[in-house]
Design a protein that fits this description.
The chain has 2 helices and no strands. By secondary structure, it is an all-alpha fold. Helix 1 crosses helix 2. The N and C termini lie far apart (93 Å). Keywords: Coiled coil.
Length: 104
């Protein structure tokens, strides 16, 4: 065989292997995603779905509830940060006054 023929055969073999690996990965990935969706739907159906509510409606309701909880947590965190800053500012003023009183 000539070098060109060997090269062509090797490249062709590598492309076949690549296609097989990629196709296998895609099959596994799709199976995992589909399996997760099925399990997720069953959990929502059994644990969270209300009467006369579809699984997709229940998921949407849960998503909105989670977004509201997250918003409330962010608001609380901001309030706490503001309170902490106020306390820090007041403390720094008291320290400065104490230093001034003590002649520092």
């Amino acid at each position: 065989m000539t070098d060109k023929k060997i090269e062509k055969a090797v490249v062709s073999t590598h492309k076949k292997i690549e296609k097989t690996v990629v196709d296998g990965y895609k099959t596994i990935e799709e199976g995992a995603v589909d399996g997760f969706k099925k399990v997720s739907d069953k959990f929502v159906e059994k644990l969270f779905k209300k009467e006369d509510e579809s699984v997709s409606d229940a998921k949407e309701r849960l998503k909105k509830q989670q977004e509201e909880v997250q918003k409330q947590q962010e608001e609380r965190a901001e309030t706490m940060a503001q309170k902490n800053q106020t306390i820090l500012d007041e403390t720094n003023k008291k320290i400065a006054a104490a230093k001034k009183y003590n002649g520092q």
